[in-house]
């Protein structure tokens, strides 16, 4: 809708994870290095956690592009117990067709698969996304599954990706043996203000932008409302560009961001609880504008009263 208006060749702020747009902040670079080190060091279990929308899935897709020629990779994306038992998920993740009737048969089929990959000198990597949704009993099954070895060499490596609740679950007394097997772990935190501004510019450049679309006051407001969470940044930026296109303006400032937030509030989904957000008819009132100015200044050091 707005891509041609801004001189872009694709949408820069899609909510669908896309490794092409991966911005490696210092935090994301460490997380990616941690994942790669876990694979290189033959770690049995690697755990990566982060808040919703922090970029975990994008990191995983980026890593998959790097290792697909070296390893056999399976990904489990739906870990709810209603969708079957663990071995059914595992066989499906590796596209192993079967008509087994029992867990024992499924286990033997997977052992056969691991052995075949070992003969080909290929390691098997199982990635479990949204792992915080797994029941404790299922996580324990996963630990037992990791006992598969071929000639004393670990041929199955497991990477668990999840929200912070995953750590709480792994600290349960019933999972002490599981926790002891975790070799590598990393918690991905949100972006800071400087990284948020660089993130926005990076995605626009990948999409073909030759100019700075969001000025510093807009970036400051985006950081204030998103708290540096990439998915929320994308959500705000995408709608801000729609608003700018509708208003025939190619530079976006903080007032457009406030308009976006107010639009989101009217939808009834409260993504920005606890944030100052003057209603459109209050924008010119000194007290309301001052609250927002101080809040953004405190978070970012940017004084929006000196910007447009």
Automatic annotation (TrEMBL):
The protein's name: DUF2075 domain-containing protein
Residue ranges occupied by any AAA+ ATPase domain in the UniProt entry: 42-183
GO molecular function: ATP hydrolysis activity
PANTHER family attached to this UniProt entry: GENERAL SECRETION PATHWAY PROTEIN A-RELATED, PHOSPHORIBULOKINASE _ URIDINE KINASE FAMILY
Domain of life: Bacteria
Organism: Methylotuvimicrobium buryatense
